[in-house]
Amino acid sequence: MLPYFLGCPSWSESAWRGAVYPQSSTSADYLKQYCQLFNAVEGNTTFYARPAPETIAKWSVAMPEHFRFCAKLPRDISHAADLREQFHAIDEFRRLLAPLGPRIAPYWLQLPASFSPHRLFELAMLIEHWGTSAEHFGGKALAIEVRHPEFFAKGDAERALNRLLLDQGVERICLDSRALFSCHSSDPGIVHAQDKKPRLPTRPTAFSQAPQLRFIGHPELLENDPFMAPWLDKVANWIEQGLSPYVFLHTSDNRLAPQLARRFHQQLMTRLPGMPELPALNVEAPAEQLGLL
Hints:
By secondary structure, this protein is an alpha/beta fold. The chain has helices at about 30-35, 45-50, 55-60, 75-80, 85-95, 120-130, 155-170, 180, 190-195, 225-240, 255-270, and strands spanning about 5-10, 40-45, 70, 105-110, 140-145, 170, 175, 210-215, 245-250. The protein contains 11 helices and 9 strands. The model is unreliable at about 285-293 (pLDDT under 50).
């Protein structure tokens, strides 16, 4: 059993067949196969659409008890004009995902760049509601990602945000997109990713038992090593402190996200002797395709 949670943005990439999943895999196989390789996943799918109860029932069968699904609150909640008007929608969403039990931990609230410090009181009230309703939903943890520049300016706005989250035991998600933006390419997929992803300073915080890292990588795996090195030290330190970090690896089109995640773990093993290895991939692929060279 790994002492931390490691995964990718999703499990349903058909491009992974032959490199991560067996070539014969179908979309119905992906989640079960993913859970054999990693112990966590970002819940991007819930950001764009609420899954049907029947889908959640299937997920609960495919996901092991120890697996963690960081379900994002739907964007009609996180991107609403006033978070205080979303409490009922939040409760309904938590009720919908309740069959997954402890696998949902933490929930993620990914706020848009338009969410400014002037609206911090809305977030404070949302967190208060989240806590007071916890007994109805198993006390699920919450993590927040902010994108407004003032929350990264080391001024009053950032101090107020950090104080709020730290006092409530709500994690601030660490996003690092430096490796992606170090890539100079006219490839449409890379340009699209650079246009879409935020370019903000890193904030390696640990406001709870479960610090959260999202690393947006360079499309060439080896180019990520200098950017990953400080995070490997940080994650190793968190684990040694008894924390349970969550680490998610992306690439521009996520074709190589699993290979980058495995590369991260390989290098973490050198910092923490005795760390278990990840399960072997059940495919025939060259070492360079697996990110091992």
